TrEMBL record:
Record's protein name: Cell division protein SepF
GO biological processes: division septum assembly; FtsZ-dependent cytokinesis
Name of encoding gene: sepF
Gene3D superfamilies given in the database record: SepF-like protein
Key words of the record: Cell cycle, Cell division, Cytoplasm, Septation
Pfam families in alphabetical order: SepF (PF04472)
Organism: Microbacterium kyungheense
Length: 154
């Protein structure tokens, strides 16, 4: 017991004399036919985590969903279909202005997170298009009348 730290730990009662031990000296390597043989370590299996990025297949579009939400909880239907690569038309004419704002904020985040686009068709109708869907047009309908605000400002 030549280490002063170990002696101090035994003196203070933090370690017993039986627990204090010296590290064993390294074992010399055995040589056979001028090759160095070392102990084989246990096999290690690396963990491969699958990537959970789900991209919709760029197949032909055979459906467009039109949703007339009445409450904010109808956003789940919009999200599930948009996530599956289906374009969604949202008609907000049956919602209150506060819920409609919330739903558009949600739809904007949804389209941004899945690399899609959201476009205003009329003052209360919006189109969510997935990444693999190209929407043609100059966008003049959405920007035609800047005074027609879709939701009344408080």
């Amino acid at each position: 017991m030549s280490n002063p730290l170990k002696k101090t730990m035994v003196y203070l009662g933090l370690a017993d004399e039986e627990e204090v031990y010296e590290e064993p000296a390294p074992q010399p390597r055995a040589r056979t036919s001028e090759k160095v043989v070392e102990k084989a370590a246990a096999p290690v299996t690396p963990i491969h985590r699958p990537t959970v990025v789900r991209q919709p297949a760029p197949a032909a579009i055979n459906e467009i969903l039109t949703v007339h939400p009445k409450q904010y909880r109808d956003a789940q239907v919009i999200a599930e279909n948009f996530r599956d690569g289906i374009p969604v038309i949202i008609n907000l004419s049956q919602m209150s202005d506060a819920d409609a704002r919330r739903l558009i904020d949600f739809a904007s985040g949804l389209s941004l997170g899945l690399y899609g686009r959201i476009e205003r068709v009329t003052s209360k109708v919006f189109l969510l298009s997935p990444e693999n869907v190209a929407v043609s047009g100059d966008g003049a309908v959405a920007q035609a009348d800047p005074d027609s605000v879709p939701f009344a400002q408080p």
